[in-house]
Amino acid sequence: MRFVQFLRKNDPKKRLGIVSPDGNRLTELSEYSCVSSDMVNFIEQNYNIGELESKMECTKSEPVTDNITLLPPITNPSKVIGIGLNYLDHCTEQNKPKPKEPMFFNKFATSIVGPTGDIIAHKITNKLDWEVELAVVIGKKAFQVKKDNAFDYIFGYTVAQDISARDWQKERNGGQFLIGKSMDSFCPLGPSIVHKSFIKNPQDLNLTSKINGVTKQNGNTKDMIYKIDEIIEHLTQAITLNPGDIILTGTPAGVGMHRSPPEYLKPGDVVESEIQCIGKLINTVIEG
Questions:
Q1: Rounded Cα gap, residues 71 and 115, in angstroms
Q2: Cα 214 to Cα 227: distance, rounded to the nearest angstrom
Q3: Which residues pair with 220 in a beta bridge?
Q4: What pLDDT is recorded for position 14?
Q5: What is the pTM of this model?
Q6: Which residue has the higher pLDDT, 94 or 220?
Q7: Cα gap 108→112, rounded to integer Å
Q8: How far is CA 166 from the centre of its chain?
Q9: How many CB atoms lie within 10 A of CB 21?
Q10: How far is CA 239 from CA 84, 104, 232, 233, 250, in A?
Q11: CA angle 214, 219, 222 (to 5 degrees)
């Protein structure tokens, strides 16, 4: 099942729904049997997905038209956590050894935009870069989790684009990642959360990013240095993960900063981020 948050035209009420695999049809959930219209609250309610799927088969769907706007599938996580240098080829393109332990950073929830939302080229940066990433959505409270049962704590997966202001990440702010990673619009997310039961192996998914139709990144999640279960184990030894929290799991080679010569995003550029079996983001860069 592919869960989305959406708006109807001229209606400010956020709604929850399920979309078809091709994204062309939508079934509204938020009017059904007290299901919340907020994704985090829905995840917290721990519905039986199999039963919900059976009931939804008898519920009328509708075409996705211009009257429906897909929002980020989660807008209010308590945490957005990223991991750096988690693909070997991404380490190689920087001439860096693979890290001896996971390198974590965070992004603010205010950086999240939807699957067609705009990426702001803020005036304070001129080194705007792309990073397609598989995002893990936590399904229940997790603390001191062992990797053997880490997948029990996952709700599903979505596509993320970890936009980065490389000058602020690498050259300014004392080498701290926070500002360079957390500017408004720096975390396009969506288009849906695919429930974990529909992803046979999250460690074998192709992921790509294209800029103006040209492929820049082409990798596979099997090449992660620290796998999803290891990431969750590391994080939860001292940090509680809550339902709806988002973990960005790293990016493969091909980012703009390490191309020869370096390439950076500019207003008017179109960024396409796609992950096999999950979906695609299409975001346009605009002037800040």
A1: 7
A2: 28
A3: 206
A4: 92
A5: 0.96
A6: 220
A7: 8
A8: 20
A9: 13
A10: 18, 12, 10, 10, 19
A11: 165
